[in-house]
Amino acid sequence: MKNRIYYFTGTGNSMRASRVIASSLGDTEIISMRTDPEEVPATECDVVGFVYPVYHWTMPEPAERFIEKLDINPDAYVFAIAMPSFICGFACERLAEILKGKGVTLSYGDMVNSVANYAIVYPPFPSPKLRVPKTEKKLKKIAAEIVLKTKKDYPRASRRVREKFDSFMGPYLEIQVYADNPFTVSDDCISCGLCTRVCPCSNLTMENGKPKFNHHCANCMACVTSCPKRAIGYNITEGDRKLLDASGKKTPLVKIMGLPKRRKLYRNPYITTADLTKNRE
Ligand SMILES: Cc1cc2nc3c(=O)[nH]c(=O)nc-3n(C[C@H](O)[C@H](O)[C@H](O)COP(=O)(O)O)c2cc1C
Ligand code: SF4
Ligand code: SF4
Hints:
It is a single chain. The chain is of the alpha/beta class. Helices cover 33% and strands 15% of the residues. The protein contains 11 helices and 9 strands. Helix 1 packs parallel to helix 4. The radius of gyration is 18 Å and the shape is globular. The model has no long low-confidence stretch (mean pLDDT 94). The site of one iron/sulfur cluster has 14 residues, from helix 7.
């Protein structure tokens, strides 16, 4: 029997969840979706899991792209765990749709509310001290169900999310290519290159001793929260705000973006920055 979990993570919640489930399953490979999917096919696996955050009420785009290219055993027990802070939206539905296109059935789907990590929009909430133990508890319960190969229907988007998705999130997703325009790097940068190694999207390269943002950013927050000098900031100018606001109506998220110097940053307490540089374990 071969068990495999694929995860996408910015700040460690999804990696931690993968580890908790893997330790219950035993003998499980854990692979980051930053790997080339063609190098890690799941054709020989009996149990296949996908764990990922929720971005803008759906799956992170790099996770979608990875799974679309991944070969999967159609007879495998396949599970999905979405890790939103509150709103799961289409995150499981979208995965089920991609799998269906490959002739694969999603046997088990669930969501686990986690600490919200979008540092360039808000401070971590709810309080990690309170939320992390609750998340851990639910993960253990889910892990026990997965060990038994329980079937569970995945969560669907609410009617309100369905009605609002296109106007609220659609424009922002369309112009994701500009999402890293407002990032700044201060003179506190010590050229350590850690930000380039934690980025799950290979979006950062070192140029003249500083990271350069190459416009395929998922806004995952790994670089922001991992920098040992807190040198990465986010300075959204009126020009960038216009670029990010494809609808021209200042969508709610774009309106409130910014990263005050003193804002608290979040990384899952069980995950180190070294963990975030890994491709597999
Ligand atoms: C770009 C971005 C968009 C997000 N959108 C949502 C969302 O639509 N709904 C939600 O509940 N949480 C949202 N979050 C919060 C994350 O889904 C949540 O903090 C997640 O647990 C982070 O997982 P990670 O630590 O594995 O990266 C968003 C976070 C980011 C960075
Ligand atoms: S992690 Fe911070 S200090 Fe290190 S290279 Fe990146 S911006 Fe500079
Ligand atoms: S550049 Fe930073 S925020 Fe963007 S994907 Fe890479 S680590 Fe995440």
